[in-house]
Amino acid sequence: MSHSSSLYISTRGGIKPLGFSEAVLMGLAEDGGLLLPQIIPDCRNKLAAWSHLSYSDLAFEVMSPYVGAAMPSESLKALIKQSYASFSSPEVVPLVKLDNGLFLAELFHGPTLAFKDVALQFLGNLFAWLLQERGGKLNILGATSGDTGSAAIYGVRGKKNINIFILYPEGRVSALQELQMATVPDANVHCLAIKGSFDDGQRIIKEIFAELDFKKQYSLGAVNSVNWARILAQIVYYFWACFRVQEKYEQPQRFQVAVPTGNFGDIFAGYIAKRMGAPIERLILASNQNDILSRFFNSGEYSRGQVNVTLSPSMDIQVASNFERYLYYRCAEKPAEVSKLMRQFAAEQRLQLPGKDPDFEAGSGNDAETLECIKRYYQNNGYVLDPHSAVGVSVAERFLCQDTPTICLATAHPGKFPEALKTALHDEQIGRHPELEKLKGKPLRKTIIEADKEKVKAFICKTLQQI
Ligand SMILES: *Cc1c(COP(=O)(O)O)cnc(C)c1O
Questions:
Q1: Which helix (H) or strand (E) holds 9?
Q2: How many distinct structural domains can be found in the chain?
Q3: If you average pLDDT over every residue of the chain, what do you get?
């Protein structure tokens, strides 16, 4: 049987190949692995034709081979258009050139002003389309420490047959983060502020998902960062960013792309883009003090450490959920090898690979470097970086290369992180965003609830019975 980019296998080899729709609905593979397409298409001979397309048309071309016959072309096209119409920039992902020669790809022009919108606007529409085709309902359940919650909510707000329940720790997310989640007026959005920590929220979700009968009865699902559709949507902007720089500026052949990293989702999409043939010479992985990934790319050792709280909270992650997908390619696409390494990691909290991957450079930036970077770019280049993007930029600076221009991914609008900005720039006015200012003082629609699984389940039952 010939292999196809629209059939999905597990990194651990334990499932029969699935179509795109099943892969999206399944999220995590049933053998505990992650889903990947059987093959990655080689698109090198398409680059010239793709380079002039609009963002949505490019997204269609990049995604089509992975979707295959699961969706009619016209439906996929319309779904992509709808997903990116919610972005405030007509380019969707505008490129900015700074005086020092660095390029920034601004991924934060979506409704919640962070790059997760690029994937979650698409995923929300995709879920709605799949439900409309197949019937049924989906009740999304998630826990957030702040930022992902709002992007997930905005992805599905107002969508038919979908409800979303987001748990966050009461009093422990920033005022702005809570406003972004709990001011959304749509009836299908349910914010649960739990009297506990983020870990309590995650534990409750995990326990509820483990109750398979309850999960099935209430059609519970997740939008976590291992869903293939999220990766898919993120592949697009790597091509886009390279094309825009080639077109507007000096026509260089190849680039380095620097990516601030947490769960290894965003940079894994870049890795796939590179394997498809995007003109990327290397990827620069940037972590904050939670440096499991940068340590791995420099030493070959992947070992769990403590989670540190930093100024770039969306990267405060130790074990990166998408890393297993990368391992699959490092193990020459041999699922048995991946399974062995993942078993070893589960038992010993570490694994080791020989050699260095020439596709990556990696480094970590601490809070002091982040603040210094924000300040210096504001003073020297008149550009306000958010703390996540600043981690990326400060690490990228260590790997600048004369003939290979560097594109840094800017993953959030600085207005989302006023405390860090104030510390860096000593001025509360800089970097504000009018949409965030408008939220201030709006009433919150939230339910405060005990950090107790049964209470959360009872809330879900009651809410769904009333609909
Ligand atoms: C989630 C997030 C990241 C990290 O992305 P991963 O896909 O988890 O690597 C970086 N910056 C911001 C602003 C984010 O929200």
A1: strand 7-10
A2: 1
A3: 94
